[in-house]
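Late entry, written up from scratch paper. The run itself happened at the end of the previous shift, but nothing got recorded in the book at the time, so transcribing now.
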Amino acid sequence: MKTKEELLKEIERLLAYNPEQKLEINPNYLEYLELEDLESIKAGLLKKVGTLNEEDLAWLEQFKKYE
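Output as recorded:
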């Protein structure tokens, strides 16, 4: 089982759209969040990341230059 800190780091990576950009969530939130809360947040983000990527690709496709 993962620790709260590990889950928090995974959530931070999911929230960072640009891998070069470092995103940090205040670790003090871990006092108020249970493992189940963090796992739920991560699962929700994983679901949304897949959806966002498909939507973003479709949106970006309109700007593609065809020769």
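The chain has two helices and no strands.
(Scratch paper discarded after transcription.)
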